[in-house]
Amino acid sequence: MNKGIQMSLFMSLILILFFSLTHPVYAINEKSQEIQVELEYAKENLLMLQEYNMSTTRYNDSLFIIQQLLNTQIQNEEKGIATRYDFVDLELNKIHNLYNDELLAYDEFQILKETLVEFESTNQYIIDNLVKEVETGLAEERYEDILSDIDAIYEEISRQEALQSKVAAIYTATTRSITIFFAKYGKRFFISIGIVLLALLIFHRPLIRSVIRGKMVHLEKKRIAITRLMKSAQRQYFDKGVMDETTYRIHTAKYSQFIIEINRKFPLLNEELSIYKKILPDIHFLPKKKKTEVQTNETKN
Questions:
Q1: By C-alpha distance, which of 98, 9, 5, 117 is closest to 54?
Q2: How far is CA 101 from CA 46, 50, 208, 245, in A?
């Protein structure tokens, strides 16, 4: 064999190796093709998350793992080696769940920010710190904890509003009375303590009712905020055309689910409120015996 033929064979081998290393791996059967379509859909979801300026490190890592698993199985299929596409399906389910968790956390946080627009408190720093924790959780992609953190913020808002209402009512009702009391009856200070304790005993039910009403007010504010976000999505889709149909359907479906959940809570709170509307039972004292009855009993003895 002359050197020319040897050189031609050598160059052909080099070209074949180069093509096999650089040519992308394509799906060659129905199952691998289905997975490839699902992977492309997951990549489109990544673009949507990036449009919302969300952290996508976990999502990118999952995409990389799925792509590597898929390439490995296709290569095994080409070589006649047994394939395990169930591993790829498992990772695809994980990334779909991660995508849903990210969108849910994003939507809930937007609703919370809309609710906080009208909230003012002397202890605002507590709410601000909790909101920063949620923002940190979103940045670190800890979506499993975001919803519980947001619920904790709503609980703190209700607690602070109930406390503000109670303090304002007590201040208005007692400031003048206490001033007069100490001016005239300073020596009877302990009597005022007894009155306060008795007032707490009598009015503990109204205080509980005020807390429940505060929760109902915040649910209503949350419903209004969700409605505003839904109208905004409708304007972006129908009027401005800046939102695609898939994104619009996802958001409206989630907003509708939020409103259904809020509507479900109202009857429960109303039922709880009706329990505490019952006034305290009347306190009956034993009647005093008349002096004549006492004397008669002493004579008989």
A1: 98
A2: 13, 15, 35, 20
Radius of gyration of the chain (CA): 35
The helix-helix angle for 124-139 and 143-185 (nearest 10°) equals: 170
Helices and strands counted in the chain (H then E) = 9, 0
- How many other CB atoms are there within 10 angstroms of residue 146's CB atom? 22
Query: In terms of Cα–Cα distance, which of 154, 160, 158 is closest to 261?
Result: 154
Predicted confidence (pLDDT) at residue 247 exceeds the cutoff of 80: yes
Give the whole-angstrom CA distance, residue 121 versus residue 108.
22
Of the candidates 110, 125, 136, the residue with the CA atom closest to the CA atom of residue 52? 110
Distance CA 225, CA 264 (A): 17
To the nearest 5 percent, what fractions of the chain are helix, strand and coil?
85, 0, 15
Q: pLDDT per residue over 142-172, tens digit each?
A: 888 888 888 888 888 888 877 777 665 565 6
pLDDT at 283 over 50: no
The token pair that represents 255 in the structure block: 């907003």
